[in-house]
Amino acid sequence: MFYRPEDGHGLPHNPFNAVITPRPIGWISSRSADGVNNLAPYSFFNGVAYTPPQVMFASTGSKEDQDNTKDSMANIEETGVFCVNIVSYAMRDAMNASSQTLGKEVDEFAHAGLTAEDCQTINCARIAGAPAALECKLTKIVTLPGVSNRVAFGEVTGVHLRDDCMKDGMFDVTTFEPLARLGYRDYSRVTEVFSLARPDD
């Protein structure tokens, strides 16, 4: 099968997200200038540089009570900071609950039954008990072609690693089974890993 996106795919559901899988989920926490905590999952998320460590996430939608964007992007534009929380399999229902479209005055931490804990290097909340969290200072927001497509880049200024996830000095993802986004309404979790030596090692 071949199709041009501009012509449509002719399938019951768009296959694009099913092709780019698995995708890590950035559970982005932010705080409005008025002090309201916000939390939302984004699967267009990844690390983009080691030194200094940097991440990105893309927001591809909008809400009626925000100006052509979502709460996360609006808050980050106002305050210049955000936090990436890593989603464990055990937190899948809370993550899903935080994806609900709610008014910008609603605290998604409370809505999803999660405890907010202040970050150490930025004025933002993080999820207490998350396997890891990356405190980030905004470096750039890029507007992409299309409606409401925006990418936020951030430099990591603080890293939280849950103690029980550390094994022999390494961050062991099998201890919390990170959640990954697939296509459609599908998810997966990492339960086992294997290593490959690089040819130039």
TrEMBL record:
InterPro entries the record matches: Flavin_Rdtase-like_dom, Split_barrel_FMN-bd
Residue ranges of every copy of the Flavin reductase like domain listed in the record: 18-173
GO molecular function, one term: FMN binding
Protein name in the entry: Flavin reductase
Species for this entry: Phaeobacter gallaeciensis
Organism classification: Bacteria, Pseudomonadati, Pseudomonadota, Alphaproteobacteria, Rhodobacterales
PANTHER family reported for this sequence: BLR2425 PROTEIN, FLAVIN REDUCTASE LIKE DOMAIN-CONTAINING PROTEIN
Pfam families reported for this sequence: Flavin_Reduct
